[in-house]
Amino acid sequence: MSNSAAAVSPLTAAGCGSEGLTPEPEVLRQRGQREVFCGLTGIIWLHRKIQDAFFLVVGSRTCAHLIQSAAGVMIFAEPRFATAIIDERDLAGLADANEELDRVVDQLLARRSDIRLLFLVGSCPSEVIKLDLAKAAQRLSQRHAPGVRVLNYSGSGIETTFTQGEDACLASLVPTLPAADTAEASLLVVGALADVVEDQFSRLFDDLGVGPVGFLPPGKAKMLPPVGPTTRFLLAQPFLADTARALEERGATHLPAPFPLGAEGTSAWLRAAADAWGVEAERFDAVTAPPRQRAGRAIARYRDTLAGRNVFFFPDSQLEIPIARFLARELEMTPLEVGTPYLHRQHLAAELALLPETARLSEGQDVERQLARCRAARPDITVCGLGLANPLEAEGLTTKWSIELLFTPVQGYEQAGDLAELFARPLRRQAALAV
Amino acid sequence: MQLTLWTYEGPPHIGAMRIATAMDGLHYVLHAPQGDTYADLLFTMIERRDRRPPVTYTTFQARDLGGDTAALFKSAVRDAYERFKPQALLVGASCTAELIQDDPGGLAKALDLPVPVIPVELPAYQRKENWGAAETFYRLVRAMAGPSMPAPGTTRSAQADGARPNGARPSCNILGPTALGFRHRDDVREITQLLGRLGIAVNVVAPLGATPADLARLGEADFNVVLYPEIADTAARWLERSFKQPRVTTVPIGVGATKDFIAEVQALGFAVAPEAGFDSDLRLPWYSRSIDSTYLTGKRVFIFGDATHAVAAARVASEELGFQVVGLGTYSREFARDLRAAAACYGVEPLITDDYLDVEARIAELQPELVLGTQMERHIAKRLGIGCAVISAPVHVQDFPARYAPQMGIEGANVLFDTWVHPLMMGLEEHLIGMFREDPEFGADARPSHLGHGSSPAETRSAGVPIEISPTVTDSGVRSGDEIRWAEEAEKELGKVPFFVRGKVRRNTERFARDGGLALITLETLYDAKAHFGR
After folding, report:
1. For a 10 Å CB count at each end of chain A, is N or C smaller?
2. Smallest CA–CA separation between A287 and chain B, in Å?
3. Residue numbers in B near A76 (CB within 8 A)
4. From A81, which residue of chain B is nearest by alpha-carbon distance?
5. Number of neighbouring beta carbons within 10 Å of residue A124
6. Are the Cβ atoms of A161 and B34 closer than 8 angstroms?
7. Residue B96 and residue A124: Cβ atoms within 8 Å?
8. What is the homologous superfamily of the domain B284-424 according to CATH?
9. Is B37–A35 a contact, with Cβ atoms under 8 angstroms apart?
10. B16 with B31: CB under 8 angstroms?
11. For residues A160 and A154, is the Cβ–Cβ distance under 8 A?
């Protein structure tokens, strides 16, 4: 147990790129139980982000139960999501599933006249019974045009893991974006961000002379940003592979960069856009130095608590690698294992280059064996999902639930200190409690 | 297909998980796609369990569907057995795996493991959580206790005498408490104590805290206490048939029901009379009779929950607190008949539904002064500005208190008094607000002062709008009212009525107007109605 790396070495896939300048990092890949959410979970933040959109999951009672349970607390405002629960009549062919879906959508739209954009969200059961939601979305779009546009994507567990649901949702929006018909270059920031973070980034890009800037997803369905060959896009989140591909198909150009987590990540992310716009180094420094220094001061408050501590990531949000990089480089922490559900090498290339070599990368999961490694390593902080956190705390390990990293504004300079604080708080709490 | 915002019950495999998680030495292998592992957090977060539920999920993905999901399931069963070495295994499928028809039971049997393997088939597109729990518990009890079933024709007394060592007390099993149950932990302690005072030992509590081996000795008890019929009724009926064990089915929630429970146990002939003063800690009757409680008289209460808790709450509310039950409902269709019978007693229309919107509409229409419900009704009540106490699952983390807070038995009755009275305006305060309703700080829209700002419905108050709970103004599919209009003067006067009776006054006045064929409610109508209905 003490040498956990040796115990799992037969399964280690060493992938040394033959032509690459830097060797590919070793990645531990195991298959077993994956203790992760499915892509439906993304609805919890997406339904708040796009204010006139509604998410209708076409699935089972399990799907409905998942969404109402996944946030850990029920959202007691009138939600902009619901589930069309498939029942036995639909399966037995006693009812035509498409007619049933049309009826449910009519019922929903009658009840919520404020809906402008309706997502039909596919689930495991709808995929297995091969209910064609793309066709349904087309049909329903015609039926409810022009007031309501109907799109579809899959958030099913057999297709998507947790944040991939946001990727699938945004990718479904891309074909509906208006064409950018100007020769002027524009910037598109892709990935759901807190409103306050968007505003901060907008001001920074303004000051840098970068723009015009659009955001995907937009706050309102009618404010869809245009896209075309003159569009350059920055990914604000590391889990947007399909969305990036769809944008490239529309002619847009990806600006590769680390992700805007921590002062260093934010600077590098902004610089990628600044370089594309030919912003002078002096101007870049003049604009970014004050918030960068402020972020440095905010982070410094937590360095005493965090420096020298080690951290172990269970795979969850796909934010693990950028956050491990931030904790290692700006807070002097030691990542022991950095688990991720999927490793998108291209989008994470800049991040991987910054990650300490001593960190073990793992992709996918066999939760039982990963727990054994975690127990053997006894990290100072374990980042994990809600199903594992209390049991690990009960074993004496300090944990940070990863879902909070999606529900809290953490990107950008002004939130870098908040991100550090999320990791310092469990340790400070441990220290404070005498029971 | 059914449009669903919130669900009262999860799918049936969640019920199976509640059984497995309650027990020791049992492991559940669930054929399910990735994502279904969310269910772990129900137990680790909502109930704050310090261990993962004993559940292994196959977490198949799309790429597995083209291949061999059956092989995946078999290796998951084998690995789970090797890793956890349970006394018995439960195997089954969640909704998606049900569609791919891999036959978990057959696959697991083929592995020839050295422990009992119990398949549970839970039709996910037909049934729900409580049914799943009941079915799973029944299957487990049958599988484990079945081998010691007496030969047909054996009489119960012969068995009991033979099974009970000299001097041992008569015993019962307590059936039904599960993981994630509303106050199950504390109810078991309370009822175990109560049975102890009747000279009855507890043979096995199940499923909570039991092992499969414990289930095998269920037949040793003299009778069964069915504490939660939604979970244990099926199993208890089978035990009654197979082991001739009588069932005690009174659910001891409230003073009267606890007395009836004692009487039912005594009628079986095993119990001794409890010593005098055994119920000296029972405070509900005196608290309810003390004059401070006069203001509780006729408070209009709406009750919704699982059938057991809803029916029990109606009796306590009516007979023990002096409330008026104005609405009664349940999401447990399996027990709809019991609820209908209870509703008939109180002269109210039963509401049998698992559609949260129906419940919301009914509450908005009835405008009660107190709602007793689940976490859904807490939400509805908050929106409508009505006090609420939680009486039934589904509940949330705050309903798993650190302190001892049973719902059943003697202490349970005390807890009910406290928690149901707490959301209401206190008596003297009610009078003062009635007299000085124009006082800006202590006026008609003031909330109970002991509840602080948290009790005020934020949206309605900050906007300075009177709290409207008329069906016509809710935005949630509530059926719209009739054609009766309020004259401005009357509407203004209504605004002076304290918030906690305003709904009732509005409703009564509209009913009075409707009955009298009036289209416009004037100041006169308002006071005519007041005279007609009394306070």
Report:
1. C
2. 40
3. 379, 382
4. B5
5. 34
6. yes
7. yes
8. Nitrogenase molybdenum iron protein domain (3.40.50.1980)
9. yes
10. no
11. yes
The C-alpha atoms of residue B246 and residue B116 are separated, in whole angstroms, by: 27
Say yes or no to pLDDT of B430 above 50: yes
Q: What is the dihedral of CA B233, B237, B243, B244, to 10 degrees?
A: 120
Q: What percent of chain B has pLDDT over 70?
A: 87
- H helix runs in A355-415, sequence order: 367-377, 386-394, 404-407
Can you list the domains of chain A with their CATH numbers?
39-160 (3.40.50.1980), 186-283 (3.40.50.1980), 289-432 (3.40.50.1980)
* DSSP state letters, B84-111: H--SEEEEEE-HHHHHHT--HHHHHHHT
All residues of chain A having their beta carbon less than 8 Å from the beta carbon of residue B79 are 32, 368
pTM of this prediction exceeds 0.95: no
Q: Which of the 8 DSSP states describes residue A239?
A: T
Q: Which helix (H) or strand (E) holds A7?
A: helix A4-8
What is the CATH number assigned to the segment(s) B144-267? Answer: 3.40.50.1980
Instruction: Give the amino acid at B512.
Output: F
How are beta strands A27-31 and A12-13 bridged, if at all? antiparallel
- Structure tokens given for B416: 């009910």
**Gap between the Cα atoms of B175 and B180, Å rounded:** 15
User: Could you tell me which CATH class the domain B12-127 is placed in?
Assistant: alpha beta
pLDDT digits (tens, 9 = 90+) for A34-93: 999 999 999 988 988 898 999 999 999 999 999 988 765 555 567 889 999 999 998 987
Q: Are B35 and A85 inside 8 Å of each other by CB?
A: no
Chain A residues with beta carbon closer than 8 angstroms to that of B48: 390
- A390 neighbourhood in chain B, CB within 8 Å: 44-45, 48-50
Q: To the nearest whole angstrom, how far is the Cα of A37 from the nearest Cα of chain B?
A: 4
Quote the tokens at residue B335.
Answer: 């027990």
* Cis previous bond, A258, omega within 30: no
The mean per-residue pLDDT over the stretch B348-356 comes to 95
Q: Are A201 and A247 spatial neighbours (Cβ–Cβ below 8 Å)?
A: no
Contact in structure between B302 and B370 (CB atoms under 8 Å):
yes
Sorted by where each begins, the domain ranges of chain B are 12-127, 144-267, 284-424, 429-533
Residue pair A411/A236 in contact by the 8 Å Cβ criterion: yes
Domains B144-267 and B284-424 share a fold: yes
Chain mean position to CA A63:
20
∠ CA B108-B55-B188, rounded to 5°: 115
φ/ψ region of B123 (left if φ > 0, alpha if ψ in -120 to 50, else beta) reads beta
Strand B2-4, strand A81-85: pairing: antiparallel
CATH class of B429-533: mainly alpha
